[in-house]
Amino acid sequence: MWWLMLAVLAAGAAIWWAVKGLLPVNGLTFVNPEELRGSEQGGHELQMLDVRDSVDYMKHHVPGSINISMGRLPYVHKSQLASEEPVLILAENFRQTKRAARMLKRYGFIRIYALQNGKASPGCGVCCQ
């Protein structure tokens, strides 16, 4: 009987994890790369945070972006990023983007942006053209 309760609890946790990844993040704004080119985001410098692992970052990174993988983000965000400046998240997919945005919100970041396609791609147009 206890194994049945454990299985139900595990299934509930898996469902919660899946649903949480689909929920919108309050304060995360999705933008087109064309909107970012030439805009100054209210007179503040845009910080580009690439949360992919270092191998993917080295292969295809946007010049000027800061690479902090998801595992390191809780430990080095204070030394690498300014919470009062806007942040553009470059990630592998929407789930990773939302996870990074939730972390940044928890650490006091207010203006958080992500690309509409949800992923950082080579030549994405943010600053490369």
Number of helices: 5
Low-confidence stretches: 122-129
Strand order in the sheet with the most strands: 1-5-4-2-3
Overall geometry comes to elongated
Task: Note the gap between the termini.
Answer: 62 Å
- Percent strand equals 5-15%
Structural class: alpha/beta
For the secondary structure, the number of strands is 5
Helix-residue proportion: 40-55%
Overall mean confidence score, pLDDT:
82
Largest beta-sheet details: 5 strands, parallel
Helix and strand run: HEHEHEHEHE
Rg, nearest Å: 17 Å
Protein name: Rhodanese-like domain-containing protein
Domain Rhodanese: 42-118
Pfam families: Rhodanese
How is the topology of this model organized?
Elements lengths: L1 H21 L5 E4 L1 H4 L10 E4 L3 H6 L6 E2 L5 H8 L6 E4 L3 H13 L5 E4 L14
Parallel strand pairs: 1-5, 2-3, 2-4, 4-5
Jot down its keywords:
129 residues, 40% helix, Rhodanese-like_dom_sf, 5 helices, alpha/beta, Rhodanese-like domain-containing protein, Rhodanese-like_dom
